[in-house]
UniProtKB/TrEMBL annotation:
The keyword Heme does not apply. The keyword Signal applies. It comes from Streptomyces pakalii. Belongs to the N-acetylmuramoyl-L-alanine amidase 2 family. Gene3D superfamilies: Peptidoglycan recognition protein-like. This is Peptidoglycan recognition family protein. SMART domains: Ami_2, PGRP. Residues 38-193 form the Peptidoglycan recognition protein family domain. Keywords: Signal. Residues 1-30 form the signal peptide.
Length: 217
């Protein structure tokens, strides 16, 4: 008999979530157990290139999250290695073609549900919860928003894989908790410019806000 496979979100969160739930008193609700840090591969883990210039900190907390897609191939490779290859592809594009200091996004989510740190120091400042890195993902919003980019192209009706969607929810919930951002403050790139990005993910923003709010209790 074929048993149902656990989702990528469950794989990422089961260990820490189970420990957290076991440690909580019975009066505590799911919020503290569910909103935990998902598995994020830092720039050292995927062997990112060094930035071409200094990484700037904004000096305050972000007030919103902006969702993107990278318009890369909609691969069926769900491996961690593919997530690292994608992170390199984005960094090379942003540094070599766009001439930017580093990856423009703060974090990237692969189609297999793996998260990689984009711009250097994004992960350490997220852990701190009081400051964030100046990105290069949305004109006019880079000193206000965390940029999350999803591997793939979501135009023409293409849908994100379940693993990617569930980890997007988990990462948004964690970022919201760390920075005190309300789930209602989740936006798409096209909300702030003349672009099709993030494709169908923009249509799914109401669902994303709802699922993030639910996961935060």
């Amino acid at each position: 008999m074929n048993l149902p496979q656990p989702s990528r979100r469950h794989i990422l969160l089961a260990g820490a979530g189970g420990l957290a739930a076991a440690a909580l008193p019975t009066t505590a609700h799911a919020r503290a157990a569910d909103v935990i840090e998902p598995d994020i591969d830092g720039t050292a883990q995927w062997q990112a290139r060094a930035p071409q210039g200094p990484i700037e900190l904004v000096g305050k907390r972000p007030t919103k999250i902006i969702v993107h897609h990278t318009v890369s191939a909609n691969t069926y490779d769900a491996s961690r290695a593919q997530a690292h290859r994608h992170a390199h592809w984005v960094q090379d594009l942003h540094m070599d073609k766009n001439g930017w200091t580093d990856t423009g996004y703060h974090f990237l989510i692969s189609r297999g549900g793996w998260i990689t740190e984009g711009r250097h120091q994004s992960l350490s400042t997220l852990h701190g919860g009081s400051d964030f890195v100046l990105g290069a993902h949305t004109s006019g919003q880079n000193d206000q928003a965390i940029g999350l980019a999803n591997e793939g192209a979501y135009h023409d009706g293409a849908q994100p894989p379940r693993a990617q969607w569930e980890v997007l929810v988990a990462l948004c919930a964690y970022v919201c908790r760390q920075y005190g951002i309300a789930p209602s403050r989740l936006y798409g790139h096209k909300d702030f410019g003349d672009t099709l990005c993030p494709g169908v993910l923009h249509d799914k923003l109401p669902q994303l806000r709802s699922e993030v709010a639910a996961s935060m209790g």
